[in-house]
Design goal:
By secondary structure, this protein is of the alpha+beta class. The protein has a 7-stranded antiparallel β-sheet with strand order 1-2-3-4-7-6-5, covered by helices on one side. It is globular and about 40 Å long.
Length: 161
């Protein structure tokens, strides 16, 4: 028979509870389902699958990921792996998906994504962010090893008052 020390049992319990509390099936909440529907409508993407934890939604054609946990963080992420310089329509796609998540103006989101991309290319850490009143655009961009770009458009984290 397996015998666990009391501290090991407590640790296992805390890990299990933490997994349940932090985003378990959160992408299936009504708020997240509305965001999923808007992303599909505005980008013509297709639902692929939920992550095993149920906190993320994967889309195909075009590919993107929605991380949706209304209690913690909600953002859509797109990546470009062909180079450090995505085509113009890719920035439009990021803006449309970001609009579906945040409600921010797509033109403002697209300009912010381009600004973030340029800043990340110049940054030694290859990362940048642009804060807007109702959205945050974060990105990573690089040209080494063939290059790549990731743009995340998030609902800003609200400070508790």
């Amino acid at each position: 028979m397996l015998r666990l020390a009391p501290c090991a049992v407590l640790l296992l319990l805390l890990i299990t509870l933490g997994d349940v509390m932090a985003g378990e099936r959160s992408a299936e909440t009504p708020e997240c389902k509305e965001i999923i529907a808007r992303i599909i409508e505005r980008t013509n993407t297709h639902f692929d699958h939920f992550s095993p934890s149920g906190g993320s939604v994967f889309f195909k054609h075009p590919d993107m990921v929605l991380v949706c946990d209304p209690k913690f963080v909600t953002y859509v992420s797109l990546n470009w792996d062909a180079s450090g310089f995505p085509p113009n329509d890719w920035f439009g796609l990021a803006a449309a998906a970001g609009n579906a998540v945040t409600g921010a103006d797509p033109k403002i989101l697209e300009a912010a994504a381009r600004r973030c991309h340029r800043a990340a290319l110049k940054d030694t850490d290859e990362q940048a962010s642009v804060a807007l009143p109702n959205a945050t655009v974060e990105c990573q961009a690089f040209t080494r090893n063939g290059g790549g770009v990731v743009v995340d458009v998030a609902i800003p984290i609200r400070k508790k008052s």
